[in-house]
């Protein structure tokens, strides 16, 4: 399984150091939390994986997928009379389900709008929707001027006409940076 | 949201019609009652018209913990006052709105998010037919779902308000819906408010829409909610009702039921296939695992083009986390929230949080109705359609359970039994206030109101069972309500219990003829047993009111709503009133009422009575054991010491050929170190009975039976607890080969719990160990239950004595089962805790064979072990014989006699010492200070509700005595250890030990005796000062026939965060003489007491009673028959303006020889004017407000105090010196309710006026012609 890692900061030495130390601090924090909560090894590993997935911005789909595997495994383990393993499996299923939604929340929180000249927007990708600078779907001013439909809607510039399109909330394309150039993911 | 009604109405109509069709049974005006949903007669419902903070219609009265439900109750009350019966109003107000509301709100929520009708249909289906909704409604918790649909509807509007900035009217509208939800069930409002908060944060912070724009709307939302709930918030908070609420102070419930499996599958733990079995954890069906899978897939597929799904994903995950309660993972989280978060303690069980899970599930499953955002190829489309089909099938299966009726319970129509209608008609015609007692419990059709409250058997037992024993110990009858009621009502204190409780009628409800639901199934004993018990009570009179099956008894001497008494004594609250009552009956023939002094009534005002040596101290001097007690006398008064001179305690001596029954004179004590003192017993022989030298003899006494012990004086018990004793000879044994000398009963062992093929059981004959002879039966079990049986010939309708001897080798329990061959296959069974595995235990059971029985099968068991070691039980000397009575000694005429000794009490402490040189004072418990190690090898798990205990036991070097103490710690489950003790012919045991805790959590002990009744004594101890050693001491009466006991020590489960750690040390159990109840001290009072000539009571509402007293000369105790609450106050009113309701009186009776009593029901509550009681100071000070007769509100009503402290217009003096006064008994938080109502109305009115002015101003500005000067204003407005 290949995990896409996004390097979110330019390779500036000072910032890299800061990140390096931040990761060490995070690792210590995980161990500390794990010991305070009396977590066992597996829980500690899961918690660490979760924290690292946030740092490295691992797609939450992975957590959901692992969660689904555990959900499917649980009744099977019960059927083959391995109740202790089923007990663990259902707990891990919950962990990954919770990790999934929290990661998704984090993804949503840290998502940034794409620059106007993003090629994705031109291609009409679902991830490439454009959010104009200063647009606030909840603000009265924008609504009153543009008659934006009520639900989850954003403006999309299409030629010279202003139309509406569903606002997905996802603004960052599936791209990675390499040498400060955008590469389609 | 754009909800086009025209385009949706067909859908809406079709959905509503389908939902109604599925719930077609409810669309009639039939009777529906089950679980917590009771039928109410209009008498009770009309009480709701007059709102009362005091809920007086059930039990002994209590502050209404669900007063927030007032608006709903008011509407139901209005319907009742219009003559609309409950079976109609419940449909119009609850059933139909809930069914339709769930569907509509589910539809709107999904449609609001996805703008898709299919999504709406899925939403409606999920919300209407999830297993949580069906299970909850079935059990009668339908109001939870009514509140749920209102909250979901409110959520739809607040989503629009927050997300779309749709304007204040949406905030206002949603807050009103949430308020309505809270008026139906406050817990749903609590959860909804948290969800709204989370949603606001999600929108503002995560979706970056800014908090600034939301704040004014949210402020309006919160303000409206607050104002709408002021009516209950003010009285509840100001009166301290929240902190003292019995509802909120209950502990967690059902830790063993709620689990992660059910929670993650969004399934109610009691949901099986097409039905629910309440309080039985069900296995999760395989198909139910589809739901969490779809939940996760939905988040994978849709969260990017519908980020709102992330919020509902969080809600779902939060719901799962909470609804599993203390199950893994995060086992301590729920308990922590329960303890720390304000309001969370209303959720004593976690299933309410399915609200979150279901809301999350609803939205995430509805998402499959829209395109994913991925290229809509075949696989994606197939996945979507499969998901939708699966959802519809799963929830249709649930819906089918309603259509088919397999879910039963509240979904099925019932018949109102005619007997209950007759009963309701009869009791509503009987005037005045009184209670009805339902044994064992109230039927769902019982008639009760504030005028005729209902008391159930468990309520009566829990209130009074502390008085079962003279030593005040709480005796558990192993939750056998019949045994507890027999002890209570059958005792010589039984009538007083009913009198004090104002219980006029005792009812035995219908059995299985009540719609096939036999409420006796939930209790020990049959309906006939309860009828037999009540028939045996002389003070009850059975009356015929024209019912076929329902049985009714009347107690004519019940106390009125208000009583004034002059024959009252005061206790310090630690005494058993039953013991003191017997003492007063013996000394002056009266049964006075009593009040508990506490630190309130000046001690000298009333005669103080107490029994000595309830908690004695023991010392060993040269002359042997000295039992001492200390009494504090603040003023140093004169008193009378009463000494039992002979017939208080019964003993016997058996020399092999005769039994002599006798009593002993209590020895003279030394008072303050001086006085006579004596060490010689006076003996009063009561009766001698000659016996044959052949056979075994038993003595039946005091609910127990025990074999006669030869050659030593044996203590039987107090006369007060026995009407007679009987000597019984054991007849011929009907069990062949009962001693197993001829081998086992069967060739092979039988499996009596064959739940699979993996049984691991064995049976053999043991030649090494036996009670008598050389052989015994050995049953062992590791998996399943090993058993064997024999068939015994019996005669029907005959008394029998069943005896078993058993011994454990690793097993904690032995057990037997005896089944007769009569038509009903009558059976008795016993699962007995084995107190001492090293010795043989004897079980003796008296039973009566059923009519028509000719044979019986007796099974013996060894129960399944922990799967590691074998549970081995040995049995020997099994016998079933017909007992023969050889002599009965009637004790009912044995009047207890007391000698009076006048003494002067010193100011301060006074000592009373009795010398018993024949007692050694040695402790009978070995290794009491744990210097030789712990009592058991391993810590016991005394609450193993799951496989995740966190308990420990070790020896600590922190000791109060010696070098070691025992440390018990518990975080999950209860840690326990035990020790066996043996004693011979003991009267009482003085238990004492040192303890130290690390927090204020309680710990306790439990002692089970080996008498035939298996008497158990327990105590819960809370250490107020943690980390300091304390000492516990208690004298415990040994039950008749007991020679052994098992003492258990407990550290109870903590909140899951830290261990509850208890150190035990220095255990001592000393045999002492049973001196409690043999010495009484009565201190003289300084005041004369008398009752008035006339009392007139007008009951205005549950919270308010007006009382007029005429001719009160001396002090008396005024008692209001409602449970004690500091909120009750006795106000002195100006005497002018009183209208005696004697003319319209509904009740007229003499409450004492001198006092005429009238009672009427005005129903004329002053309403909002009663807000004046918020500041009214004309009430008797709190020190006059005391606990009367164990539970009620009492006031020391002293004319001298009134004359001295109130102006002349508040009283008038008669020629004979007596005064006339007008009083109001008022539950003061009621006035705070009116304050809250005024607040709600006032703020609403001001807001409306402000809003109207604002609108008017805007309209004027808009209508003004544009001029140069006001152009800027118009621009601003536009």
What is the compact description of this entry?
The complex is a heterodimer of chains A (185) and B (1278). Chain A is mainly α and 185 residues long. Chain A has helices at 13-36, 41-55, 60-79, 83-110, 119-123, 140-146; strands spanning 153-158, 161-166, 175-178, 181-184.
Please indicate the percent range of residues of chain A in DSSP E strands (runs of 2 or more): 5-15%
Radius of gyration from the alpha-carbon trace of chain B, in angstroms: 35 Å
Structural class of chain B: alpha+beta
Overall morphology of chain A: flat
CA-based shape of chain B: globular
Low-pLDDT runs of 5+ residues of chain A are 1-10, 114-185
Total count of helical runs of at least 4 residues of chain B: 27
Characterize the main sheet of chain A.
2 strands, antiparallel
User: How much helicity do the residues of chain A have?
Assistant: 40-55%
